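so im writing up the methods section and need the Large ribosomal subunit protein uL22 record in one place, dumping it here so i stop losing it
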Amino acid sequence: MEAVAKLNNVPTSARKMRMVADMIRGQRVNRALNILKFESKEGAARLEKLLLSAIANWQSKNEDERLEDADLFIKSITVDGGRMLKRLRPAPQGRAHRIRKRSNHVTLVIASKNEAAVTADVVEEVINETENN
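--- predicted struct ---
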């Protein structure tokens, strides 16, 4: 079972947030939380909170399963550019320079490794049955 968490209009550039997202992509949830907790970049605190939200979403979907037995990992994390605020800054000789204040949207998907193995086994069984028939 998968769980999704989204974070919209984060007031940092997508490029800076992608640097942090690349560190935790594909990691197990416990390891990713440790990485984010001790990372000094600004986006790490926001991603840590988002990851905790995704875990809570997973728990609400799977109330009968234990979190420790699920073996959760980060299936995908995407960082897209968001809305851009445009401002003007005074420049010499009566000119103006445009300032672009960027934002981003983050989408985080976590899944259980146990379930991924089960679905892979089911796919193999279906392939074997079609080959035998």
